Amino acid sequence: MERFIENLIYSSRWLLAPIYLGLSLGLLALSVKFFQELIHLLPNILTVTENDLVLLLLSLIDMTLVGGLLVMVMFAGYENFVSKLDIDENKEKLAWLGTIDSGSLKNKVAAAIVAISSIHLLRVFMDAENVANDKLMWYVIIHLTFVLSAFVMGYLDNVSQKAKKH
């Protein structure tokens, strides 16, 4: 009975596979929005203000970072929790595949969230005259919370890595 339960629990990891596949649909939706923004920009490229152009470009960078985050979570999460990716020998393989453990993935996700938050905060600051001071304060507090969380997670990971070596 114990062996059956353990095998069932171990096999249940495959329930994550459709979730990772769902993230790829999220990546497709993000790609559609990215190009939708570009298509909206092109007819107005000569009349758009520099500030509006920078805000749009920051928005595109933000979407790009989220897309990279999705890919990293999909691939590393699948490899860590479901199964190794079986890539054909004649196909290009990403150099980092198989090298990110769950702790590293957690830290990379935290760093990506800080980067995304930074870009969002920069977008808010570029339009600061139209944002209430209390909202600006909350944006900064939330961003600093992300920064502190990422720092603490990295620090704790570093401490646990050192503890494993000793």
UniProtKB/TrEMBL annotation:
Q: What is the lineage of its organism?
A: Bacteria, Pseudomonadati, Pseudomonadota, Gammaproteobacteria, Alteromonadales
Q: Which UniProt keywords apply?
A: Cell membrane, Membrane, Transmembrane, Transmembrane helix
Q: What is this protein called?
A: UPF0114 protein V6256_11970
| Family designation | Belongs to the UPF0114 family.
Membrane topology, from the record: Multi-pass membrane protein
**Where found in the cell?**
Cell membrane
Organism, scientific name: Psychromonas aquatilis
Q: Where would you find the membrane-spanning parts of this chain?
A: 12-35, 55-78, 138-156
* NCBIfam families for the chain: HI0507
Q: What is its main location?
A: membrane
